[in-house]
Amino acid sequence: MTATGDRLSTLARGLSAPKGFVDASLTAPAVKAIRLLGGIPAPEALPVEAIARASAQLWQDPDAAIASLQYSPAHGFAALRDWIANREGVDPGRIVVTNGGMHGLSLSVLTVVERGATVAVDDPVFPGFLWALEVSTTGILPVPVEADGFDVEHLARRLAAGERIAAAYTVPDFHNPAQVSLSAAKRQALIELAERHGFYVIVDNPYRELRFAGRDQGVAVFNDSDRAIHVNTFTKTLGPGWRVGWLVLPAHLVDPVIRLRNRLDVHTSSVTQGIVERLVTGDNQWFDRMVGDATALYRERAGVLVDALHEHLPGAFEIQAPEGGLFLWPRLTDDGLDPAALFRRAAANGVVYQQGEFFAADPRQRSSARHLRFAYSDRTPQELREAVRRLAQAF
Amino acid sequence: MTATGDRLSTLARGLSAPKGFVDASLTAPAVKAIRLLGGIPAPEALPVEAIARASAQLWQDPDAAIASLQYSPAHGFAALRDWIANREGVDPGRIVVTNGGMHGLSLSVLTVVERGATVAVDDPVFPGFLWALEVSTTGILPVPVEADGFDVEHLARRLAAGERIAAAYTVPDFHNPAQVSLSAAKRQALIELAERHGFYVIVDNPYRELRFAGRDQGVAVFNDSDRAIHVNTFTKTLGPGWRVGWLVLPAHLVDPVIRLRNRLDVHTSSVTQGIVERLVTGDNQWFDRMVGDATALYRERAGVLVDALHEHLPGAFEIQAPEGGLFLWPRLTDDGLDPAALFRRAAANGVVYQQGEFFAADPRQRSSARHLRFAYSDRTPQELREAVRRLAQAF
């Protein structure tokens, strides 16, 4: 054996090591720390019994069982695509089933983002998107996320000043981490800007189904534009473990995305598609009922967390009550407080969360560092109250 | 809406349209044509009952069910990696679970093949590898596949003459399409050449388990070298639909591959890993028994096909009896026969197969075009005999 590690591709060498966001997730500072870290479904909200039934039916149906064990079309299972297309209000030919949301982001980036190009991104931003983007470019144009989402006017001004972008990335519903939703007016404005300037909008929408307050701002404006790639997934509803999601693509991007998949992974697992297809198409109300139950759980948990923060740490945070999704993004009101020191004390005291600084797209902006990201979805009300008590002690 | 299709990345624009290999697969020339097209498992060989049991156990075990519905490590499920590592004779830390063999090839290419670099490939070659390669390069150095596999001496001469390659690609066991296996001596010689010249060997080994005659030439030489990436999959044993495979990586490539996966698809489905892990680890003899039953089926089918060709088309082909795998690669003995015209007549007569020309890595070499690739695995003996009768009429 010769010892070597020097013949990696430029691409492989260029991928950054995990930092910040991931490091914090890996920290296990106190035994039995309460983890408010990941935006993952509550175990109680995952429909294990229905999955067991759908799965048993699949393996007992000889034709379906064999179809789930053999190769299947790169676009995805037909009845599953039909069901998704019906919910999205588009032609099934525009749906491509993916291996989850991150895979959808990655396929989008590889298809429309030129190497070294610039992409406008939410600021604060979901760090996972910057990782996906790194395969093509590290050139980003951070765009502030306001109370009604991505600042379209800011981007318009930058474009008017001569900036050129290949794509704009935003999470329109229950933003990660900033919890807000993009207003209907801004959705329209963003798409018009994209059509005028000829860039793509990568619309990352994993939390869309999880609304428990406020008004849906609509996705038809995305699905009706040939400048929007609408990325979605069953991760936050049926569970991350499936690795099943979908893209709503402009018709002209379907073939390029399929050609890419022919090279990368052939198709999404026929086994997972076979089970998920049965789950969602077997009873047409089932998915909405299941999501309704999960959302009721998240509404309760969000409320418990907000109430506990007001009770135990009155005035310490500026807090917006979430309208859906899995995150609370409170802002520290005391500008003299060091958030890194607070995190260390909290961790030592048995509660961990994501520090806001990890979500800054522009490392020069200091506003994200004044925030904490709490994921409340997979903690019980009792754990959430205890987490806040421990956090209060850290203050 | 503006009509646009002109803002694709250079990468997306550069991916070729499907041709040849895929077109032929899509041809359905005669109603009820007998298809000898794809190297896929026989439906009868797929262990549906065992899968149903493992799956039912998984969903009835509350902890395992939740683990299969949540995120899981990018490297793969621990017990599954242990089982694979034990069979491969390597440390589990060197195993990365993939979404099947093609995904393993794609990860290998993206990790070690520089953009625009040259890669030595089998000639004839599995066309899927050239597609996977296209994401990084179209630069290939075709290396003839002989009766004992990849012509290592040919490559050595080209390297001595100044040629530089990033990697060499070969299918060592039951070659697709050429049916042969790489001799133990050549395996050793290829690895020594790679270590001397500092390139990687991408060892694509999906048919390895399916031996029914002859002697195993061993894989320890690959698994012991830090210049070999050993790509494998459950596709030809448990079925292509799982999209579960694995890489045996040199230790220094594990982190680069994981960083890439962090960007591309996060991890292989926890659901499929959960079921496959139960299948293979529940009873330590089960996998070998299952593969033994499947291989007995393929031995019988290969024999039926060879016998029928000798009986109905005596002297028409030069035939080697397969020692395993899913393919027969007979050579037409009549140099005056037009293989494309033969294919059209055969298709019109109700039998389709892959034409040899689609597997030529070097389009100037004409020897592949003198071959036919018959996949016998998923056709019954009766269908195989009828296919040969139809082919004989086409002659």
Can you walk me through this structure?
- The structure is a homodimer of 395-residue chains.
- Chain A is an alpha/beta fold.
- The first copy, chain A, has two domains: 12-41 and 288-394, Alpha-Beta Complex (Aspartate Aminotransferase, domain 1); 71-282, Aspartate Aminotransferase, domain 2, CATH 3.40.640.
- Chain A has helices at 10-14, 21-26, 48-60, 62-69, 78-88, 101-112, 127-134, 152-160, 184-197, 220-223, 251-264, 270-282, 286-312, 339-348, 381-394; strands at 34-36, 95-98, 118-123, 139-146, 149-150, 167-170, 200-204, 228-233, 245-248, 317-318, 327-328, 331-332, 351-355, 372-375.
- Chain A has an eight-stranded mixed β-sheet, sandwiched between helices.
- The model of chain A is unreliable at 1-5 and 23-28 (pLDDT under 50).
- Chains A, B: Residues 47-391 form the Aminotransferase class I/classII large domain.
- Chains A, B: Pfam families: Aminotran_1_2 (PF00155).
Query: N- to C-terminal separation of chain A?
Result: 55 Å
H/E element sequence of chain A: HHEHHHEHEHEEHEHEHEEHHHEEEHEEH
CA radius of gyration of chain A:
21 Å
Structural class of chain A: alpha/beta
Structure summary, number of beta strands of chain A: 14
| Quaternary state of the chains | homodimer
Largest interface: A-B, 87 and 87 residues
Helix-residue proportion of chain A: 40-55%
Do you know the CATH architecture of the largest domain in chain A? 3-Layer(aba) Sandwich
Counting structural domains of chain A, the number is 2
Residue fraction in strands of chain A: 5-15%
Structure annotation, total helices of chain A: 15
Query: Could you state the CATH homologous superfamily of the largest domain in chain A?
Result: Type I PLP-dependent aspartate aminotransferase-like (Major domain)
Strand order of the largest sheet of chain A: 2-9-8-7-6-3-4-5
Shape of chain A: globular
The mean pLDDT of chain A is 94
Largest sheet of chain A: 8 strands, mixed
CATH class of the largest domain in chain A: Alpha Beta
| Uncertain stretches of chain A | 1-5, 23-28
CATH topology of the largest domain in chain A: Aspartate Aminotransferase, domain 2
